[in-house]
Amino acid sequence: MALNLVMLGPPGAGKGTQAKTLAAARGIPHISTGEMLREAVAAGTDIGLRAKAVMEKGQLVSDEIIVGVVRERLAKADARGGFLLDGFPRTVPQANGLDAILARFGLTLDRVVAIEVSEETVISRNTGRWVCPKDGTVYQVKTAPPKRAGLCDLDGTPLVQRPDDQEPQIRQRLREYHQKTDPLKDHYRGKGLLLEVDGSQAADQVYASIVSALRSAAGGR
Ligand code: AMP
Q1: Segments of the chain with pLDDT less than 50
Q2: DSSP for 118-145?
Q3: Is 171 a catalytic residue?
Q4: At 19, which helix (H) or strand (E)?
Q5: Closest residue CA from atom 1 of ligand 1
Q6: What is the pTM of this model?
Q7: I want to staple 164 with a disulfide (CB 3.0 to 4.6 A). Which of 104, 109, 169, 208 is the partner?
């Protein structure tokens, strides 16, 4: 059965890692708006040029731009068999924009998974995150370090930090999250779609909690 999912969580909640694993296990596309924007910035497209400075400050790209990006992505045929949206919606207007997009395709959301972590965890996870610029592999200094310091395990490429993973930018991203994204939890709780998962555990335990929450929710319907 097609599963239409949203994954919510502050920066550093492990959202991207969990979303990738879950989407692969379900055979549905993993749609990360952060990744799509970083690709647009790297490719120097019009959207990338408009988004770059805003992203580097840790602020949110405008609802209008991001809803347009998601509309185009969900129009692709592979999204008809289910999808996992990671990092979208991040505001209530974006959630309304998503409803309008889905309505056009005769689709509805099945579940919204919110990964919960404390503020200290967010800061330490983000400042310790290093990424391979070539293949996107993510490392964590403390919990998942590369085998050779500073180099990607897969191809030896020197790892980099995201420009928005410095502490002032992380604090700004957290402020944005609390002000604009937190209200989405009530929004989706009210619709009976919200599943909350403790993201402070190790990644494989978080994954097991997500799978079990989805299973109980499906059984409870
Ligand atoms: P992420 O990889 O999800 O942490 O996103 C990185 C950055 O991309 C965010 O800090 C925002 O600047 C931008 N971004 C990603 N998704 C959205 C969204 N749904 N709305 C606004 N900005 C976004």
Answers
A1: 221
A2: -HHHHHHHHHTEEE-TTT--EEETTTB-
A3: no
A4: helix 15-26
A5: 34
A6: 0.88
A7: 169
